Structure formats: structure tokens, C-alpha cells
């Protein structure tokens, strides 16, 4: 009973640390987008942390995007409205495809570089 003040300080430290850990466990873990370029503005992302559970829906136009956003499951479905029909990649050269803003936005949303075989940055399990 000689060190009651020290014991109280130690108990308060333990309690505050436990409360911080509980708050940290409750926070929703968002997908890490800090590395690499920013996501396209029209992308409505999903809330799941596991990329293999996430689904990306590419829809044609803003009106279809609005309907899809209302009907989606926010937990694992992401919506990206495209500006009309995108470039037909069978009929143009590779340089023209990579210069297209829509193709660039899709590759950024998916998390992959068009010229790379590396799948480590993949953000969705289904597209």
C-alpha cells in the first residue's frame, strides 16, 4: 500500500491503452490509395478491405451510374461510370489506347499498369 499513486497511474495507462486499441479495432479499414495516383473522380469505391471480395462495375454514362449506385451493395461493390462508349481497342494502335483518358481511368481504378504483368496492386477481384 506504499505506492498507491504509482499504481493508479499505471492502471490509468493500461486502461487508456486498452481503450485506444478498442477504438482502433472498430475503425473501418479503407483501401490504401496513398501510394500511386489518385483515384478517378467518378469512381464510387466499396468499403471492403480485401481486394478479392471487391467488385468493380463499369457502367456507360452518368445516368446508369446513378442507378447502379442506388442498387449496389456498398460493402463490396464499386461503380465507375464511363463517358459513353470507350475506344474500340481492336481498331487502333497501342499508343492511342494508352492515350485515352477513359482507359487510363479504368487502369488507375483497377490498380494495374496497362504494360505490366504485376498483379500486386490489384484493387478488385471482379470487374
Automatic annotation (TrEMBL):
PROSITE patterns given in the database record: TOPOISOMERASE_II
Keywords: ATP-binding, DNA-binding, Isomerase, Magnesium, Metal-binding, Nucleotide-binding, Topoisomerase
Top-tier EC class: isomerase
EC number(s) from the headed UniProt entry: 5.6.2.2
Domain Toprim: from-to ranges: 55-115
GO CC terms, sorted: chromosome
Keyword Transmembrane included in the entry's annotation: no
Molecular function GO labels: ATP binding; DNA binding; DNA topoisomerase type II (double strand cut, ATP-hydrolyzing) activity; metal ion binding
Pfam families xrefs: Toprim
Reactions catalysed: ATP-dependent breakage, passage and rejoining of double-stranded DNA
Superkingdom assignment: Bacteria
GO BP, sorted A to Z: DNA topological change
Protein name: DNA topoisomerase (ATP-hydrolyzing)
Organism the protein comes from: Aeromonas hydrophila
